Hints:
By secondary structure, the chain is mainly beta. It is about 5% helix and about 65% strand. The protein is built from 1 helix and 15 strands. Strands 3-4-5-7-8-9-10-11-12-13-14-15 form a 12-stranded antiparallel barrel. It is globular, with a radius of gyration of 18 Å. The relative contact order is 0.19.
Amino acid sequence: MRTVVGGLASALALFGAEAQGGAFTQQAGEGQAFLSGYASEGAAYYDRRGRLTPRGRFSKRELQLYVEYGLTDALTLIGATALQRISSADEYETSRRRGFGRTELGLRARLWTDGRWVVSAQAAGALAGAKRGDGFAAVGEADDQLDARVLVARSFEAFGGHGFADVAAGYRARAGDPADEARIDATLGWRKRGSRVLWLAQSFSAIGLGRWSGPYGLRQRVHKVQTGALYDLTSRFFVHASGFASVYGRDSLDEKGAMVGVGCRF
Length: 266
């Protein structure tokens, strides 16, 4: 869930006409919430050498909720949950799963800032909604997780507008398969001065640090890109949309999808 909802939400910490990145914290007593519908499909697979081959079919639908709230100016509470429907089929098995996705809770702490540059640290835990008995469709969804990361962001002005660049590097410890992962996320955002539209370009990389210990001897590597926009309806309410796709992987699905949603600042 963090790859799509958290990645978009961390890119949208906004105030006034300035666009800020995921390393920025919310001001005390202020926050933002996103309700998003997410859909992805896949009918091909990257093998352990990175070669793309046809393999079964995967479909995922989620309704995701993400919230940020400033406990202090330098400490932000983050939380997320989702309802999901997953179907997976290959020549051997067909499986479906419905229910809660992961529920996540964490904190982002600002470590240093000079007004333009910001350095933060973030830690979060996530409880899986799926169970191992839910079948093939729940593979990779049934593990609890701990995620720790360092985030660096820089605000700038360019081409008649305001923008930001944000990079997050982290480690994700998983209680079951898949194996632990290194995570690298990057976001570039820009808003023309006076415009209601914030444009976003993002990349998400997950690098497996070992092979799965279960029946699937995989060592995953996933690289995705995402692009989208947010449109301010008012100073408080907005809508957003984005599309994403896998660009390379190993032992991983070739996945494409889109997300649309609404949000508010409070």
